[in-house]
User: Which sequence fits this backbone?
């Protein structure tokens, strides 16, 4: 799954650690999501969407592998 | 959240060390401390068992506090470790039964194998997502 998390995080001047603390996951998880090595759960995707005030589909793009 | 995680890890470390210490006492106590006194040996084994249960409860708390990625990493590692422990354990036992090895199949070797396998797999899986 492609995502714009790194761009959005940079736009809001959050570090990975800041974002991890706000979302309630580890910094490693944020890093893995940004590198598209790990797809977040639905609750985590909703928390990210709520934080950046954007719909989920504006942040995450599903691609059939 | 981080505070809670640290507290849970600290509790797990405490219970693991007390379990190891009580295991050592229950193992060597009968021979070196209380001269095979049955009641004291039974007491030492019971205390060790209770500490083992408390260690498991503490480990469960740590596991439940993991986030989704950490849980995935540990679940994958646990699944592989469990499979390998069953297969390697039974093969090892079979080697003894069929007299292909001279020594007795010691459970301690299997425990060491399980511990090292889990540690290596968690390290590999953590690197996969780094």
Assistant:
């Amino acid at each position: 799954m492609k995502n714009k998390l790194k761009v959005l995080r940079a736009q809001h001047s959050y570090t990975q650690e800041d974002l991890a603390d706000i979302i309630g996951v580890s910094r490693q998880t944020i890093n893995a999501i940004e590198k598209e090595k790990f797809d977040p759960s639905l609750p985590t995707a909703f928390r990210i969407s709520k934080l950046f005030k954007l719909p989920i589909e504006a942040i995450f793009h599903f691609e059939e592998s | 959240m981080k505070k809670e995680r640290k507290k849970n890890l600290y509790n797990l470390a405490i219970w693991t060390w007390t379990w190891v210490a009580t295991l050592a006492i229950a193992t060597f106590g009968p021979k070196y401390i209380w001269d095979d006194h049955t009641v004291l040996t039974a007491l030492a084994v019971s205390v060790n068992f209770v500490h083992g249960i408390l260690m498991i409860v503490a480990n469960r708390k740590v596991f439940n506090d993991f986030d989704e990625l950490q849980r995935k990493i540990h679940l994958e590692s646990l699944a592989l470790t469990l499979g390998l422990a069953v297969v390697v354990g039974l093969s090892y036992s079979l080697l003894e039964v069929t007299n292909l090895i001279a020594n007795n199949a010691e459970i301690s070797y299997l425990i060491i194998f399980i511990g090292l396998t889990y540690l290596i797999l968690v390290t590999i899986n953590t690197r996969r997502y780094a």
In short: The mean pLDDT of chain A is 93. The interface with chain B takes residues 21, 24-26, 28-29, 31-32, 37-38, 40-41, 44 of chain A (CB under 8 Å).
